[in-house]
From TrEMBL:
Lineage of the organism: Bacteria, Pseudomonadati, Pseudomonadota, Betaproteobacteria, Burkholderiales
Alphabetical list of SUPFAM superfamilies matching this protein: Periplasmic binding protein-like II, Winged helix' DNA-binding domain
Keyword presence, Acetylation: no
UniProt-recorded name of the protein: Transcriptional regulator, LysR family
Record-linked PANTHER family: HTH-TYPE TRANSCRIPTIONAL REGULATOR LEUO-RELATED (PTHR30118), TRANSCRIPTIONAL REGULATORY PROTEIN (PTHR30118:SF15)
Keywords for the protein's UniProt record, in alphabetical order: DNA-binding, Transcription, Transcription regulation
Family: Belongs to the LysR transcriptional regulatory family.
Start and end residues of each HTH lysR-type domain: 9-66
Length: 312
């Protein structure tokens, strides 16, 4: 037999071989791949010529594979399965049938705000998909998204690299959080009380937030920062343990913490400008069907949430 090379094989014929292996019938295999019975027979003859083997022989039980066809069948089935699941599926994304894990960069605050409604939506429309949240330092977010190690970054990434796409989801305002046992501060807090109270500041970088600082500096307010932490979750527990401590946090986070019953929220002593929460993604995956679908779901879920008017 003459030497054969892969370029001599019409790879579309492997689709027909795979159908024949499963259906054991020329008629049924032809119907599955959308060919006439005559065209299917012609394609089967081409396969027989290429492999120099009958491949499928007629028996009372149907078209049974030869020993050579059985030997090749395992490999060809694996190849076709991989092509369907890993290549062809990338051309579109069907949330109802897709099986994949979406990885999203977010802080612990992001988990409290974003995950509950997002998980609820995903379980309804993409029941076979799973979610994994990861906390990534700001300076590593671009590389993480570029490498495909995460699909999106959600939150207030004020120093996001210019190379990332971004889309605003909603605006957040701020509230001041105090202990329910703090008797010196009522339903409002004066500037003097605010400046006097020891404060907790949450900062992912270990430094005070530029947004907080610039706003307070405009009013000439000096904060007495007692603790700086990168974690939001510890704040209500610290305030509960030390009732004189206060913290200024995003509104929705304050609402979540207030439900614990250990802290309450009040307006800060001066109006603070809202900040935007956005989703960020890398240009490499801008046209990826699954990424597009996820971004649309996130936008739909959080569009205008929590209904704070943007007059800009």
């Amino acid at each position: 037999m003459r030497a054969m090379h892969i370029r001599d094989l019409d790879l579309n014929l492997l689709v027909l071989f795979d159908a024949m292996l499963r259906e054991r019938s020329v008629t049924r295999a032809a119907a599955e791949v959308g060919l006439s019975q005559g065209a299917m027979s012609h394609a089967l003859n081409r396969l027989r010529t290429f492999f120099d083997d009958p491949l499928f022989v007629k028996t009372p039980a149907g078209m049974e594979p030869t020993q050579k066809a059985v030997q090749m069948g395992t490999t060809i089935t694996e190849v076709m399965t991989a092509l369907r699941e890993r290549v062809v599926s990338q051309a579109s994304f069907d949330p109802a049938t897709a099986r994949r894990t979406f990885v999203i960069c977010m802080t612990d605050m992001g988990e409290l705000v974003f995950l509950p409604p997002l998980v609820s939506c995903l379980r309804k429309v993409a029941p076979h998909c799973t979610v994994r949240s990861v906390q990534v330092p700001l300076e590593h977010i671009e590389a993480t998204l570029a490498a495909g190690e995460a699909d999106l970054a959600l939150g207030s990434v004020r120093t996001a690299p210019d190379g990332l796409y971004q889309q605003q989801l909603f605006l957040h305002t701020f509230v001041t959080m105090v202990s329910v046992h703090n008797k010196t501060i009522g339903t409002t807090i004066s500037r003097a009380q605010f400046e006097h109270a020891p404060q907790i500041v949450v900062s992912l970088t270990g430094r005070a937030s530029a947004a907080y600082d610039s706003a307070f500096e405009e009013y000439g307010i000096k904060r007495k920062v007692f603790l700086t932490t990168p974690h939001f979750l510890v704040v209500p527990h610290l305030i509960h343990a030390q009732p004189d401590l206060i913290a200024t946090v995003p509104l929705e986070l304050g609402n979540v913490f207030a439900k614990l019953g250990t802290v309450r929220i009040i307006p800060p002593p001066v109006p603070l400008p809202p900040f935007a929460l956005r989703q960020h993604w890398h240009p490499r995956f801008h046209d990826d069907p699954a990424n597009i679908w996820l971004r649309q779901l996130v936008k739909l879920t959080f569009d205008r949430y929590p209904e704070i008017d943007d007059d800009s």
